[in-house]
Automatic annotation (TrEMBL):
Keywords: Membrane, Transmembrane, Transmembrane helix. The lineage of its organism: Bacteria, Pseudomonadati, Pseudomonadota, Alphaproteobacteria, Rhodobacterales. This is SPW repeat-containing protein. The chain crosses the membrane at residues 38-58, 70-89, 95-118.
Length: 135
């Protein structure tokens, strides 16, 4: 595993573990656990999809390919449903803050890695075009 990928891979794995623990707590009925359903969808299928997207990002190269970057961004968006800033207003925040803060830090690491690679790719492309024009 290349060194530049370690932070984003570790962050995606952290999001996966956090979501699997949430899903386990839901199935076991151990508080605090997420609600069974929201007005828009059932939580278990959503968490399953979120974990699947994060795993797919890992397989595709989370910050090395366009597909990997898109999947990584989608994994962050899905994870922020569970760990986003709206959770500061959750009545159970005193019980869930470790997971919320860890999820937010992991999301920031993934986004920083994804956008850092995008900027590097764009810089390389601009340099290539400039070299072609000069040569």
């Amino acid at each position: 595993m290349p060194k530049h990928q370690r932070p984003v891979i570790a962050a995606l794995l952290a999001l996966i573990v956090l979501q699997l623990i949430m899903l386990s707590a839901l199935y076991a009925g151990v508080p605090p656990h997420p609600p069974v359903a929201t007005p828009l969808f059932g939580i278990a299928p959503f968490i399953g999809m979120s974990v699947a997207v994060a795993l797919a990002a890992l397989v595709m190269g989370p910050a090395d390919t366009s597909t990997g970057r898109i999947l990584s961004g989608l994994a962050v968006l899905c994870a922020l449903v569970s760990f986003g800033p709206q959770k500061y207003l959750d009545p159970q925040f005193a019980l869930i803050w470790p997971a919320v803060l860890t999820g937010q830090v992991a999301a920031l690491v993934v986004l920083a890695s994804v956008f850092g690679v995008i900027r590097a790719d764009q810089t390389d492309e601009v340099a290539r075009h400039a070299a072609q024009r000069a040569g």
